[in-house]
Amino acid sequence: MWQLCEGTHPVLTDDGGAILSERTGRWTCLTPTASAAVLLLLASTSREEAASRYAKRYGISPEQAAADVRAVAEALTAQGLAHNGQTPARKRRRGWGWWR
To answer: How many independent structural domains does the chain possess?
Structure first.
């Protein structure tokens, strides 16, 4: 099941939405349709269910909806903002890196 990582916070805006990463302190801005895809992914039990609801919402083909939802999910996963059900491994710093 697709989820946002711990420490990320989705926000709806007038222009679509955004996701704040506490880890980096950066905002990732989303278009209105990408925001809808994120909300549907979070509310659904599978990508297929989210894509089906997305297709109904926007009146597009199921294939196009699946591609759109997959693109949003993969982009946010690649940025480290989401994961596919398993908590991603944390990168450990070696040594006494706190003063570097």
So the answer is: 1
